[in-house]
C-alpha cells in the first residue's frame, strides 16, 4: 500500500473513532442554570398558546399538531433549538433523569400501544401537569393533563431532558414524590409486573435497556471483475451488531463473518459504527482474513487483505416490520475492503475496485434489550 493511501485510511478511521463521543454528547444544550430557567419558562409559556388546537397526525402547527409535532415546534420557535421530529427520535435525543428531579420544561414519555414502544410525549409544566397533543379520548387536541390521572399514571414511562437543570424553586415541583417514578403500562407486553407497581431503574439497567442487538444474513455481489462488467456472486456474510440507542447518533460495534467467493478467502471484519437514523448506518474497522485471496473472476493474480485499514462502508435499511419482541427489515450494504499486492504495495485502481467494492443484500432481525429485560 502506498504511503499516501495508508495515511488517508488511518486518518479516516481515527477521525471516525474520535467523533463518536463528540456527536453523542450533543443531546444536552450548553447553557448556565439561569439561562436554562429562562429557556424553560419560554417553553412553557409558548406551549400554552396552542391549547385547544386540534390533533392531526403529522401536524407541526400552527393550526394543528400531533404529540411530537407540538414539542418540535415549541422548542424550535420558543428557544430556537430544533429537536428530532418523531417521538422515538426525541426520546433517544434526550437524557433520562430521576422523576424526583424533573422541572418544568422537561419531557414526559408514555407507552400507550400494545407494541411496548415509546409512543407519546408531552411537555412537563410543573406540579404533575403536562401539555400535549392527544388523538383520542374525552378530550382531544392540545390539552393540559395530569400525571395523577389514572390513564396517564398507568402509561407513564420516564422523564427526559435536553435542557440543563435550572435549579430554580419556581420550576421545581412542590411535591415531587406525589407520584411514582415509573409505572408499567397495562398494555406493555414487555412487563411482568402489574400496572401501578413502582419500577425504579438503576444506571446499569438503564444502559442495558438502551442497547439494541441485531443480526443479519446477506448475499454479497458486485458488478466488476478485471475482465468484465456484469453481476457477480461474491459469497455471503453473517453479522452480529449492538448499538447504544440512548443517543441521537448511536455508536455501536459489530462483527461480520464473511466468505468472499470472489477473492476466495474468509474474512472477519470488526467494525465501529454510527447509526445516524433508523434507516442509515456507517461503519469502519480492521479485517482479519484467512486463506490466499486472488482477484475476482478468472484471474489467478494473488493479493492479500489489509488488516488495517480494513473496511469502510454504509448500510441502508427499510422500515421495521414488528414480529413479537423483534423486528425485521431488509438491508443493503455497500462496502469497500482494502486489498494489497502480495508485497504490501497498493493495487492499481483497476484491480482494487473489483477486489474491494462489494454490495450485500439481506435481512436483519433487531431485538431491543428493553423488550426482554
Low-confidence stretches: 20-26, 176-203
Q: Biggest sheet, open or closed, and with what strands and sense?
A: 8 strands, antiparallel, barrel
Give the helix proportion (percent range): 10-25%
Structural class: alpha+beta
Order of helices and strands: HHHHEEEEEHEHEEEEEEEEEEEHE
- For the terminal residues, how far apart are their CA atoms? 47 Å
* Percent of residues in β-strands: 35-45%
- Helix run count: 7
Oligomer: single chain
Average pLDDT figure: 84
Descriptive notes:
The protein has helices at 3-24, 33-47, 67-79, 87-93, 150-155, 203-209, 349-356; strands spanning 95-97, 107-110, 120-126, 129-134, 141-146, 156-161, 211-224, 229-244, 250-260, 265-277, 280-285, 287-290, 303-305, 311-317, 321-323, 326-337, 339-341, 357-368. It is an alpha+beta fold and 373 residues long. The chain contains seven helices and 18 strands. Residues 20-26 and 176-203 have low confidence and may be disordered. An eight-stranded antiparallel barrel has the order 7-8-9-10-11-14-16-18. Strands 1-6-2-3-4-5 form a six-stranded antiparallel beta sheet. It has a two-stranded antiparallel ribbon with strand order 13-17. 37% of the residues are buried. The longest helix is centred in the N-terminal third of the chain and has 22 residues, at 3-24.
Amino acid at each position: 500500500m502506498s504511503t499516501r493511501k495508508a495515511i488517508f485510511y488511518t486518518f479516516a478511521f481515527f477521525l471516525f473513532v474520535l467523533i463518536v463521543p463528540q456527536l453523542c454528547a450533543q443531546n444536552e444544550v450548553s447553557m448556565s442554570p439561569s439561562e436554562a430557567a429562562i429557556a424553560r419558562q419560554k417553553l412553557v409559556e409558548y406551549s400554552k398558546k396552542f391549547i385547544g388546537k386540534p390533533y392531526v397526525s403529522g401536524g407541526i402547527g400552527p393550526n394543528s399538531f400531533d404529540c411530537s409535532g407540538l414539542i418540535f415546534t415549541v422548542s424550535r420557535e420558543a428557544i430556537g433549538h430544533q429537536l428530532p421530529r418523531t417521538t422515538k427520535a426525541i426520546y433517544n435525543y434526550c437524557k433520562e433523569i430521576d422523576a424526583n428531579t424533573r422541572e418544568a420544561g422537561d419531557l414526559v414519555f408514555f407507552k400507550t400501544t400494545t407494541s411496548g414502544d415509546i409512543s407519546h410525549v408531552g411537555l412537563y409544566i410543573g406540579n404533575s401537569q403536562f401539555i400535549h397533543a392527544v388523538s383520542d379520548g374525552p378530550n382531544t387536541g392540545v390539552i393540559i393533563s395530569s400525571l395523577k390521572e389514572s390513564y396517564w399514571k398507568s402509561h407513564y414511562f420516564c422523564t427526559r431532558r435536553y435542557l440543563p437543570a435550572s435549579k430554580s424553586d419556581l420550576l421545581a415541583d412542590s411535591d415531587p414524590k406525589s407520584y411514582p417514578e415509573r409505572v408499567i403500562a397495562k398494555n406493555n407486553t414487555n412487563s411482568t409486573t402489574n400496572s401501578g407497581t413502582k419500577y425504579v431503574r438503576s444506571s446499569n439497567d438503564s444502559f442495558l435497556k438502551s442497547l439494541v442487538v441485531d443480526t443479519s444474513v446477506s448475499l454479497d455481489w458486485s458488478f466488476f471483475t478485471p475482465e468484465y462488467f456484469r453481476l457477480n456472486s461474491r459469497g455471503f456474510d453473517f453479522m452480529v451488531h449492538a448499538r447504544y440507542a440512548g443517543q441521537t447518533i448511536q455508536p455501536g460495534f459489530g462483527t461480520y463473518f464473511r466468505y468472499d467467493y470472489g477473492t476466495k478467502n474468509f474474512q472477519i471484519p470488526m467494525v465501529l459504527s454510527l447509526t445516524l437514523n433508523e434507516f442509515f448506518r456507517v461503519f469502519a474497522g480492521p479485517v482479519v482474513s484467512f486463506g490466499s485471496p486472488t482477484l475476482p473472476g478468472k484471474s489467478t493474480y494473488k493479493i492479500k487483505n489489509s488488516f488495517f485499514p480494513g473496511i469502510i462502508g454504509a448500510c441502508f435499511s427499510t422500515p421495521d416490520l414488528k414480529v413479537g419482541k423483534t423486528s425485521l427489515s431488509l438491508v443493503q450494504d455497500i462496502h469497500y475492503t482494502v486489498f494489497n499486492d502480495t508485497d504490501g504495495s497498493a493495487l492499481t485502481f483497476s484491480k482494487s475496485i473489483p477486489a474491494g467494492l462489494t454490495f450485500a443484500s439481506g435481512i436483519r432481525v433487531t431485538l431491543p434489550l428493553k423488550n426482554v429485560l
